[in-house]
C-alpha cells in the first residue's frame, strides 16, 4: 500500500508533495523487487471503503486510548505539533486498522516501533467482533525483523532513517550522493585519533554493517580492531560505502528501468487498486451487515 491519505494528515497544505511522492514510492517498491504479479500494490486514497471502515472503528476507540499510543506520542513530538495536532494525524492508528482489516491480513510485517499500532488494531478487531457478535474481522499477528534490524537509525544516529527527518539514503540516490552521505555519518564522537579505542555500541556505521554486510566475520574483525584502536572512521566508512554501493546498484538500475515508463507504473497502481477495491468492498459489506446499516440490501 502507498498510504497517501495518511501522508496528508500532516501535509494537507502541500498536496503537491504527496502527488510527487506517490510515484517515487511506487518506483521504490518496484525497484526493490516487489512483483505486482504476486503482491498487490495499491493507493490508499483510491479505496473508498477504507475511510468508512475508519469511521466505524473510531466509534470503538476512546480519545484517551489514542493518546496513550507511544508511537503516536513520539511522532507528535518529532513533528513539533505541540497542542496543534491534526485530528486526522491523531486518528491514524485507527486508519491503519482499516488498512489491515479491509484485506483480512493474517500477518503484518512491521518494525518494532509499529508494534503499538498493531496491538491497537487487534483491540479494535476484538471489540468489533465482540460487540456485533460476528467473527468478521481477522486479528492479525506481527512479523518482526531480526533483533536489532527493526529500525534503521538515521545517518545522524538519531531516531530512525526517515525522509521526513532528512537523515536518509534514498533508493534514487546516485553513487556519489551515497558516498557523501556515508562519509558524513555519525560514529563515536570520542574516537578522535586512529589509535584511540572506539565504541561500537551506538555507532551508526557498525549498525549499518551489521544489517547490510553479508560477511559477518569481517564485521566482527572490524569491530574488534576498532575497539582495540588502530582503525580510523574514514577507513570504516569507505568500507561501508563499498558494501552499500554493491547492495544498492541493482536496485538503482531497476528503478531507472521503471522510470523510463511512468505510464506503465501508473497502470500497475491502477490495476492493484482495482483488485484491492473488490476485496475491501466485500469486507465493508460484511461490516455494514454486522452493524445493521445495510438498509437497502
UniProtKB/TrEMBL annotation:
Keywords from the UniProt entry: Aminoacyl-tRNA synthetase, ATP-binding, Ligase, Nucleotide-binding, Protein biosynthesis
Enzyme class: ligase
Record-linked CDD domains: TrpRS_core (cd00806)
A GO molecular-function annotation: ATP binding
Superkingdom assignment: Bacteria
The UniProt record lists the keyword Membrane: no
Pfam entry (one): tRNA-synt_1b
EC number: 6.1.1.2
The keyword Protein biosynthesis appears for this protein: yes
GO cellular component: cytoplasm
Similarity section: Belongs to the class-I aminoacyl-tRNA synthetase family.
An annotated GO BP: tryptophanyl-tRNA aminoacylation
Substrates-to-products reaction catalysed: tRNA(Trp) + L-tryptophan + ATP = L-tryptophyl-tRNA(Trp) + AMP + diphosphate + H(+)
Name the record gives this protein: Tryptophan--tRNA ligase
Gene3D superfamilies per UniProt: HUPs, Tyrosyl-Transfer RNA Synthetase
SUPFAM superfamilies on file: Nucleotidylyl transferase (SSF52374)
Amino acid at each position: 500500500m502507498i498510504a497517501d491519505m495518511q501522508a496528508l494528515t500532516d501535509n494537507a497544505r502541500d498536496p503537491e508533495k504527496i502527488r510527487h511522492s506517490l510515484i517515487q514510492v511506487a518506483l521504490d517498491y518496484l525497484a526493490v523487487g516487489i512483483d505486482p504479479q504476486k503482491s498487490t500494490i495499491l493507493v490508499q486514497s483510491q479505496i473508498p471503503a477504507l475511510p468508512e471502515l475508519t469511521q466505524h472503528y473510531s466509534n470503538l476507540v476512546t480519545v484517551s486510548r489514542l493518546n496513550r499510543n507511544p508511537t503516536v506520542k513520539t511522532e507528535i513530538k518529532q513533528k513539533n505539533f505541540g497542542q496543534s495536532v491534526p485530528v486526522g494525524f491523531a486518528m491514524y492508528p485507527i486508519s491503519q486498522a482499516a488498512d489491515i482489516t479491509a484485506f483480512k491480513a493474517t500477518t503484518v510485517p512491521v518494525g518494532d516501533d509499529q508494534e503499538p499500532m498493531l496491538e491497537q488494531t487487534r483491540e479494535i478487531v476484538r471489540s468489533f467482533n465482540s460487540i456485533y457478535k460476528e467473527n468478521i474481522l481477522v486479528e492479525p499477528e506481527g512479523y518482526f525483523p531480526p533483533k536489532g534490524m527493526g529500525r534503521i537509525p538515521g545517518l545522524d544516529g538519531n531516531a530512525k532513517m526517515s525522509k521526513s527527518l532528512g537523515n536518509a539514503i534514498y533508493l534514487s540516490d546516485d553513487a556519489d550522493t551515497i558516498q557523501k552521505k556515508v562519509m558524513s555519518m555519525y560514529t563515536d564522537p570520542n574516537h578522535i585519533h586512529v589509535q584511540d579505542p572506539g565504541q561500537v555500541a551506538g555507532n551508526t556505521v557498525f549498525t549499518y554493517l551489521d544489517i547490510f554486510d553479508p560477511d559477518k566475520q569481517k564485521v566482527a574483525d572490524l569491530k574488534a580492531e576498532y575497539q582495540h584502536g588502530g582503525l580510523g572512521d574514514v577507513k570504516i566508512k569507505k568500507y561501508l560505502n563499498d558494501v552499500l554501493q554493491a547492495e544498492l546498484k541493482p536496485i538503482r538500475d531497476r528503478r531507472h528501468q521503471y522510470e523510463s515508463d511512468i505510464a506503465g507504473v501508473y497502470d500497475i497502481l491502477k490495476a492493484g487498486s482495482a483488485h484491492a477495491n473488490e476485496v475491501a468492498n466485500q469486507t465493508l459489506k460484511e461490516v455494514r451487515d454486522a452493524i445493521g446499516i445495510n438498509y437497502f440490501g
